[in-house]
């Protein structure tokens, strides 16, 4: 029994000694020694990958689909065939139109190479006939004055001149129609132009049977199969053009005042969360989505990673503010951080002291201290009483 009392006394003495020692040495606490650092504030939201624009492709006529040589996700070159429609009738119409052009060209050549020289020769013959008739009339008039012929013969000679003159006028008018600017040539030229226009229209209709890629890009949607009968106005393929990649992100409208065009950002696809890539704010919607309480922001991706795909879900972290070389403390160490008089526990001379501070920029769980602390100060979470002796195990911020 005596030994038990002695052991109990020793235990009490040991506890008392430990308590006394703790008061003298101090309670061990974790602390943070402040040093200047860069503080960044960012806002985070989710969105999707999207090209600046998409091209919806379809047919311009009613026809059956012969072939669709592309698949979703396939990259295509500008001008590459995407859909081939049935075009036998259109091909025949194009050949017929080409023949009409050849016929009109032959008609114009015939006018220039045959009819024009022939009409010119006819005009010269008519002129010679008129000259001969006029000479004959002069001889008849001379004979009439001498009394060798009568009035009837003279009248016949005069009629011959009038007839030859009329024939020359007709030959001249006929020849004029074959010259440049003449009616026959104008008609032949017009017929050729009409035939060529018809051929162009026929070739254009034939081209409509082949749907090609207007620009290089990636097929992101295919809604057509061989054998389908397609109608004008229906979207059959959606093409995402190559080039700039954008992120379309919905930010909470409370962050609207923080966002500015040109701000840098880091993004990551949900499928590859550990691989982050750079982006930049290029557009902020002037309106707010009433249903979601959000504002649409577009970001440019200068160097999109190879794994990025259209409509991928992405997380975006936009840097909205930065303070270089400031003092910052973890927000969890600040008391009354949302009130008018925030403060922290500071270790000074081995004891805790309540220190009033003023706060600035917040970001990443840290808050800037604009007044009340200096570089080298140590802050701690407690114990929660003024003047408590502590033993700090400090770490630099």
Automatic annotation (TrEMBL):
SUPFAM superfamilies in the record:
HlyD-like secretion proteins (SSF111369)
Origin superkingdom: Bacteria
The answer, when asked if Magnesium is one of the entry's keywords, is no
One Pfam entry for this protein is: Beta-barrel_RND_2
Q: Which UniProt keywords apply?
A: Coiled coil
Residue stretches making up the CusB-like beta-barrel domain = 249-318
- Look up the record and report any one GO term of the cellular component aspect: efflux pump complex
Q: Name one GO molecular function term.
A: efflux transmembrane transporter activity
The residues covered by the Multidrug resistance protein MdtA-like alpha-helical hairpin domain are 121-172
> Which parts form a coiled-coil structure per UniProt?
87-174
Q: Entry's InterPro entries? A: Beta-barrel_RND_2 (IPR058792), MdtA-like_HH (IPR058624), RND_pump_MFP (IPR006143)
Give the family, as the similarity comment puts it.
Answer: Belongs to the membrane fusion protein (MFP) (TC 8.A.1) family.
Q: Which NCBIfam families match?
A: RND_mfp
Give the protein name, as stated in the record: Efflux transporter periplasmic adaptor subunit
- Species annotation: Roseateles puraquae
Top-level taxonomy: Bacteria, Pseudomonadati, Pseudomonadota, Betaproteobacteria, Burkholderiales
């Amino acid at each position: 029994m005596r030994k038990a009392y002695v052991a109990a006394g020793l235990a009490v003495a040991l506890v008392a000694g430990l308590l006394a020692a703790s008061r003298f040495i101090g309670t061990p606490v974790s602390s943070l020694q402040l040093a200047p650092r860069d503080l960044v504030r960012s806002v985070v939201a989710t969105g999707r990958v999207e090209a600046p624009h998409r091209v919806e492709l379809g047919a311009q006529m009613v026809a059956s689909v012969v072939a669709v040589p592309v698949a979703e996700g396939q990259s295509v070159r500008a001008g590459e065939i995407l859909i081939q429609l049935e075009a036998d009738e259109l091909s025949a119409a194009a050949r017929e139109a080409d023949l009409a052009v050849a016929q009109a060209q032959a008609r114009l050549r015939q006018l220039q190479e045959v009819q024009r020289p022939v009409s010119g020769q006819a005009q010269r013959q008519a002129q010679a006939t008129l000259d001969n008739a006029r000479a004959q009339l002069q001889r008849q008039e001379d004979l009439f004055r001498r009394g060798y012929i009568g009035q009837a013969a003279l009248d016949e000679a005069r009629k011959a001149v009038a007839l030859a003159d009329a024939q020359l006028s007709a030959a001249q008018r006929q020849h004029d129609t074959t010259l440049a600017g003449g009616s026959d040539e104008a008609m032949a030229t017009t017929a050729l132009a009409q035939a060529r226009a018809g051929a162009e229209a026929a070739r254009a209709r034939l081209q409509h049977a082949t749907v090609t890629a207007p620009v290089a890009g990636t097929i992101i949607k295919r809604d057509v199969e061989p054998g389908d009968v397609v109608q004008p106005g229906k979207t059959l393929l959606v093409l995402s053009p190559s080039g700039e990649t954008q992120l379309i992100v919905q930010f909470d409208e409370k962050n609207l005042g923080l966002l500015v065009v040109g701000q840098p950002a880091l993004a990551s696809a949900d499928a590859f969360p550990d691989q982050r890539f750079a982006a930049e704010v290029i557009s902020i919607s002037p309106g707010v989505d009433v249903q979601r309480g959000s504002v649409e922001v577009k970001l440019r991706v200068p160097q999109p990673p190879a794994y990025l795909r259209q409509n991928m879900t992405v997380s975006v972290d936009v840097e909205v503010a930065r303070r270089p070389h400031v003092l910052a403390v973890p927000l969890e160490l600040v008391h009354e951080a949302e009130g008018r008089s925030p403060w922290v526990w500071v270790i000074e001379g081995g004891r805790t002291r309540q220190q009033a501070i003023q706060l600035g920029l917040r970001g990443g769980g840290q808050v800037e201290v604009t007044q009340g602390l200096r570089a080298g100060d140590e802050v701690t979470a407690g114990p929660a009483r003024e003047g408590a002796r502590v033993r700090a195990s400090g770490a630099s911020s």
